[in-house]
Amino acid sequence: MIYAENEGIRISAIAASVPEQVIDIRAKLDDPEEDPKFIKNFMKKTGITQIRKSTMAQTASDFSYTAAKQIEAAGKYRPEEIGVLINITQTPDYRTPSTALALHKRLGLPKDCLAFDINLGCSGFVYGVSLAASLLQTSNASKALVTVGDTLARKRRFPNQKRSSNTALLFGDACSATLLEKAPGYRVRTALMSDGTGHKALASPYNGWKHPVGPGSIPGDDIAVFNFTIREVPELIREFTEKAGTTMEEYDAMALHQANMMIIKNVAKRVGMPMEKVPVCLDRFGNTSGASAPLSLVDRFGECGEDKELFLIASGFGIGLSWGVVDFRINEKDILPLTIGHDTYDDGYPDDLPEDEE
Amino acid sequence: MTEREKLALLEDMLELDEGDLTVDTVLDDIDEYDSMAKLSLIVLMEDEFDVKLTADVIRGFETVGDIVALMEK
């Protein structure tokens, strides 16, 4: 594992934003277009009964923007203080440039700021926090924003398909924003890992430069990914806590990537963390990719708002294969309530241009 | 563990009635043996029998007996 202890850095706010539209999977039982047996089985096996789905008017960057603005409105930062903006998404607005630059403009961030995207999925939160913490530690930047999230429920184009498939119901749309800052006495510890031999286990290989034409997604190797998750993730969490000198009892909660209930329960069991200390939001939001761990914290603590320090551990894992762990202290009142994202961005590009013939 | 007890573990995992499975039951004929059930099987085999199933091994299973044969306890 690549282990880092970022001394003098803390996470000073976490926020998350989701679309207003709720897709109620239970209601599909009465839909003549659907197969009720499939729907019932899906809910029972995954634990998902609802997801949030963006309309075609919004993209992931809109929900990231809403979450970041919520942190600003809470008085946690002024735009000119942000020296690092990392946006982690698999559903970027553009082929180029990084969506982070459009966010940089919308958020009114200064030129003395580095801004870029990272193409990662379910490990995104942990990777973003780790990179932002080390960039803060080694530079003159004082605050960093990490936005993470995807709109995997929303399709790229208007879909024709009527009957729901597994993937159409599994993924929900959500984004998170996390603020990090220099703060003596605090630290953010992280451990990151990758395994490129699994790069085909979960993939969207088409519509890039290597395979320019093809479907938006292809079936994943569920068994390989499941085996990876229940073996590698608990092992990394154990290795991390051993190195950090902590025990599961010390943590107030463990935020896991909300992949599906079987994975959440198995990882928790294998590291000896009781389920009462593992926030679950999968049932109402589905698998929300990289935003899921912070969303689960917002869902559990966002409305509490007590002036009390929490010691948290979080883990993200999935596409890549890529996985990681982070632990940090945060005041409960700095985990903000969930917001419904209504923001949109008119970038001025027309949508009716013809495809070019290369 | 007897063969019946091993079958009972699989019946429990697949939420079937006791006695529904025999070692000759063909897996493709069991509606409940779907992609999520295969994940449950991975957990069951690892937790109860310390057997780590790979995707290739699972793909090679034809009958319930093929699974039971790996349950050494």
Quick recap of the structure?
By secondary structure, chain A is of the alpha/beta class. Helix content of chain A is 28%, strand content 25%. The longest helix of chain A is centred in the middle third of the chain and has 23 residues, at 222-244.
Please work out how many helical segments of chain A DSSP would assign: 9
Structural class designation of chain B? mainly alpha
- As for the CATH topology of chain A, it is Peroxisomal Thiolase, Chain A, domain 1
Measured on Cα atoms, how large is the radius of gyration of chain B? 11 Å
The mean pLDDT of chain A is 94
> According to CATH, what is the topology of chain B?
Non-ribosomal Peptide Synthetase Peptidyl Carrier Protein, Chain A
Q: Indicate the low-confidence ranges of chain A by residue numbers.
A: none
User: Main beta sheet of chain B: strand number and arrangement?
Assistant: none
Instruction: Give the proportion of residues in helices of chain A.
Output: 25-40%
Radius of gyration of chain A: 20 Å
| Sequence of secondary-structure elements of chain B | HHHH
CATH classification class of chain B: Mainly Alpha
Could you tell me how far the N terminus lies from the C terminus of chain A, measured between alpha carbons in angstroms?
44 Å
Q: How far apart, in Å, are the first and last alpha carbons of chain B? A: 6 Å
Number of domains of chain B: 1
Considering DSSP H and I runs of 4 or more, what fraction of the residues of chain B is helical? 40-55%
The proportion of strand residues of chain A reads: 25-35%
| Name given to the CATH architecture of chain A | 3-Layer(aba) Sandwich
Tell me about the largest β-sheet of chain A.
9 strands, mixed
Q: Would you report the number of β strands of chain A?
A: 11
Assembly type: heterodimer
